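pipeline: protein-struct stage 2 | run 1193 | Gas vesicle protein
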Amino acid sequence: MAAAEEPAKRRTGSSRATGRRPAGEPRHRPSKGPAWAMRTASEQLTELLGRAPDSVSALKSTNDGWEADVEVLELERVPDTTSVMATYHVSLDKEGDLVAYERTRRYTKGQIDRRG
């Protein structure tokens, strides 16, 4: 009995081969965009603090590079809502090197901001 053959795949125009972008395909983003800045800030803060960030809560492009607010779990407790979190303000230069960081806030995980 012969093995069932896989149907031939339809070839579509490749943007790599033609140098053109097919309709509907997103434009390639520069490597040093917001996602890159978030990853870079998180990786370097992890190296300095010895803890992996929980999330990046703010990111802003500046003339000198990037600024980010990074949330880090500092002290794990039970129940989880009483765990201690911290917000670190991180500054990166244009090459992505961390040039400054500062802990700006500590709070429990279950806390809600009460801003008017």
